[in-house]
Write a structure and sequence with these properties.
The complex is a heterodimer of chains A (about 325) and B (about 290). Chain A is mostly helical and about 325 residues long. Chain A has a single domain, classed as Orthogonal Bundle (MetI-like fold). Chain A has 15 helices and 2 strands. Chain A has a two-stranded antiparallel sheet. Chain B has about 290 residues and is mainly α. Chain B folds into 2 domains: about 50 residues, no CATH class; about 160 residues, MetI-like fold (Orthogonal Bundle). Chain B is globular, with a radius of gyration of 24 Å. The chains are: A mainly alpha (about 325), B mainly alpha (about 290). The interface between A and B is large, with 106 and 104 residues.
């Protein structure tokens, strides 16, 4: 239908129809009207901040007085700012550890769920519950699990006789970042497992039967059937957790540690918010956002390229 | 590492020792998984019903005599009433704006022919890849220029804008999957584009709408970051902000704090249990389509 509509509007055999009528009939006008509201929202809350923020990142500005143009000054400063570099390092640790944990545990959990034949609905729902609760609720819940005095974790260690492992999980700079990552993994594990489960269920069972007849044991079946066929799903899960882990960790860090102790759990987004609202350095904070954006974009592109290449080899 | 077999496949050799061992292994692994997801939540439920001293003496178990008064106190101290009203307002408004904006746009992208359609689709996909968090500072400046800091209506527009690209993407693929015949028949009968969209396509696209509503609900209802930036006065703040404030203000009243946590988390969990299938579909929609 759409084809015939464009044909009639383009055909020269309609000279008597007025211009207004032709505009009303043609898809172009209707389409423009239909996309207008979305276009306005996009322009106001995406394009405008994207461009004005980029411009802002070349200025020194406290948010109130006149901004002063300093060229790449903010970006040079980023490269020498110890707190920012630490935050960047922490963000990278956060990303690498949480991606590995989410994918390895998520696949293991999916394999497990795929074997379970009873109470499937209940078990799948239970695994997914943490995904639906907010980061704030998850974070506050874990703040109490980690509490050094009354927390569940230390009580549990006491219970199993590992009292020497007890510590202030969020107060100890050596483990705080990993304690925060655990919460992130806890919250998202069910999400990745469900995606892996959907992927596992597309693998035809004939492949496993054939392999079994050929004498392949469980481990070989996993390495030579499951894993190669799961590459696209691994790819999706990695991309999803990659962009999420870089930028969606403000809530959890803010709730659990606020970046402390002594910036041990500072990530780029928390450093950015502090620069903007604690130190009133709007331009500098904007520069942090763009630096992060470029880094995440480059990493995602590299990953797409790398995984795309391995996909052809399989 | 458990091996993989498709679901419903019969066990290889029932009764043999190794398969029994495997079953025990699976059960044990499952028990650990269920324990680590569910017990923390049950622990909060138990804690919310204990007195403060019992919380310290009886860390693990259920409360000896449930104290429901915790819930009343937590409700009052955290000003839960206002918070819930704010959260409901913001969520409903954002989702209404989202639907009104996304439906015509994704229909146009899926079904209408016009110059520049591929460019617009490219813009949608491109903006899906830019996380709103990196734009936080400029977004705050824009909101300040527009005078919508501390406005529940204003933040609703920003929420709608931030989940719009993914929603358009999902709805567009939904519209594309619907048959053309119905539309043609209506066109022959003289219906215009808008009439076709409202009377014929919308009822058919209802599952797609359910998907973006659920996805949007989780995003907006649970959001802390944008609300933290843009809602600075207590009387306009949403539930997540209220929880954090309560936690930072009364950090020694654990039992009340657990009660507040329960009041805000339980409705979402109940909603999830009732609409599990749609929830999981909504949250994984982007991945499945990719």
């Amino acid at each position: 239908m759409a084809v015939s509509a464009t044909l009639t509007s383009k055909s020269p055999a309609t000279p008597r129809v007025s211009l207004a009528r032709r505009l009303g009939r043609s898809d172009g006008f209707v389409a423009a009207m239909m996309m207008l509201p979305a276009g306005i929202l996009f322009a106001l809350f995406f394009l405008w901040p994207f461009i004005s923020g980029f411009w802002l990142s070349f200025h020194r500005w406290d948010g109130f007085s006149d901004p002063r143009f300093i060229g790449f000054g903010n970006y040079w400063r980023l490269m020498k700012d110890g707190v920012f570099l630490l935050a960047l390092k922490n963000s990278f640790i956060f990303v690498v550890v949480s991606i590995l944990a989410k994918n390895v545990l998520g696949l293991a959990l999916a394999l497990l769920l795929n074997r379970v034949t009873y109470l499937r609905g209940f078990i799948r729902a239970s695994v997914f519950v943490p995904v639906t609760i907010s980061f704030v609720a998850a974070g506050l819940l874990w703040a109490w699990i980690y509490n050094p005095v009354f927390g569940l974790l230390n009580a549990g260690l006491d219970f199993v006789g590992l009292a020497s492992w007890k510590r202030s999980w969020l107060g100890d700079a050596n483990v705080a970042l990993y304690a925060v990552i655990v919460v992130d993994v806890w919250k998202w594990l069910g999400f990745h497992a469900v995606i892996y489960l959907a992927g596992l269920q597309t693998i035809p069972s004939e492949l496993y039967e054939a392999a079994r007849i050929d004498g392949a044991n469980a481990r070989r079946r996993f390495w030579h059937i499951t894993l190669p066929l799961m590459v696209p799903v691994i790819f999706i899960n990695t991309i999803l957790s990659l962009s999420g882990a870089f930028v969606r960790n403000f809530d959890i860090v803010h709730v659990l540690t606020q970046g402390g102790p002594n910036h041990a759990t500072e990530v780029v987004i928390t450093a950015m918010v502090k620069a903007a609202f604690t130190n009133s350095q709007m331009g500098y904070a904007a520069a942090m956002g763009y630096a992060l954006f470029v880094l995440v974009g480059a990493l995602c592109a590299a990953l797409v390229y790398l995984l795309g290449r391995t996909r052809f080899k399989v | 590492m458990a091996t993989s077999s498709t679901h419903g496949a019969p066990p290889d050799s029932a009764g043999s020792f190794s398969s029994m061992l495997e079953r025990i292994g699976i059960c044990a692994a499952l028990a650990i998984v269920l324990f680590q997801t569910l017990y923390p939540l049950i622990w909060v439920l138990f804690g919310s019903l204990k007195t403060k001293s019992e919380l310290i003496n009886n860390v693990w178990g259920p409360p000896t005599s449930p104290v429901l008064d915790n819930y009343i106190q937590a409700w009052q101290m955290a000003e839960m009433g206002t918070r819930i009203v704010n959260s409901v307002t913001v969520t409903v408004l954002s989702l209404a704006i989202l639907i009104l904006v996304v439906t015509p746009c994704s229909y146009a992208l899926a079904r209408l022919r016009f110059p520049g359609r591929n460019i617009v689709t490219g813009l949608v996909v491109g903006s899906m890849l830019v996380p709103p968090q990196v734009l936080a500072i400029p977004l705050f400046m824009v909101a300040r220029d527009l005078g919508i800091i501390n406005s529940t209506v204003g933040i609703s527009f920003i929420y709608a804008a931030s989940i719009m690209p993914l929603s358009i993407f999902i709805m567009r693929s939904f519209f594309m999957s619907l048959p053309f015949d119905l539309e043609d028949a209506a066109r022959v009968d003289g219906a215009g584009r808008v009439a076709i969209l409202v009377r014929i396509m919308l009822p058919l696209a209802r599952p797609g709408m359910a998907l973006i509503i659920i996805f949007g609900f989780i995003e907006v209802w649970n959001d802390f970051f944008l609300a933290f930036l843009l809602l600075r006065q207590p009387e306009v703040q949403t539930i997540p902000l209220g929880l954090v404030n309560f936690f930072q203000q009364y950090d020694s009243m654990w039992n009340l704090y657990f009660a507040a946590l329960m009041i805000t988390t339980l409705p979402v969990i109940l909603l999830f249990v009732l609409m599990q299938r749609q929830f999981i579909a909504g949250l994984t929609a982007g991945a499945v389509k990719a």
